[in-house]
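During the reporting period, our protein records have gained a structure token line. A sample record is set out beneath this paragraph:
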Amino acid sequence: LTNPRLAAILKPRDGSTVKLIYGRALRPPNAYELYYEDGVFTQRPDHLDPERNTSYEALLEQRLATNYRMTAGVFSYEIDDMIRQVEDPATGLTVFQNAGQMTAKGLEFELEGTWKANLRGNIGYTYQETTDKSTGEWLVNSPRHIGKVNIIVPFFHDNWSLGTNLQYMSARKTTSG
């Protein structure tokens, strides 16, 4: 099996980079999905195929000044044969099955900077819509808004660094709605 990833990288002018990326990948089921069963709530599946992922991305990286860089992009991901835990109607137990297709589409922005004494940081935002392809419903545990702030402070002659990363995620749907 092959997992191709192709990219076209263009430099239309000094300080600007455009990236167009296509990828395909497989995610085989893990040991838990393949073998776990307790006989009370869960049962082992008869067979699981790998999930198949196809991705498309377009990115623009722009140097804004000597010490600032901005990245903006759009993306689309599709997963077929998604592994999900469903109820087996014959036994009433949950079992992992290849039961679905999903799509995620979105956009992202990031601003990165470096200042005096190699102090570095970035701020980013992602908006995504992740849905079940067959029903059009918003997927469980999939936030629409993600924000992040990261600061890295070097010390001891730039041999060490200390950093913090703050992340925000909007509300997420649970399995119970």
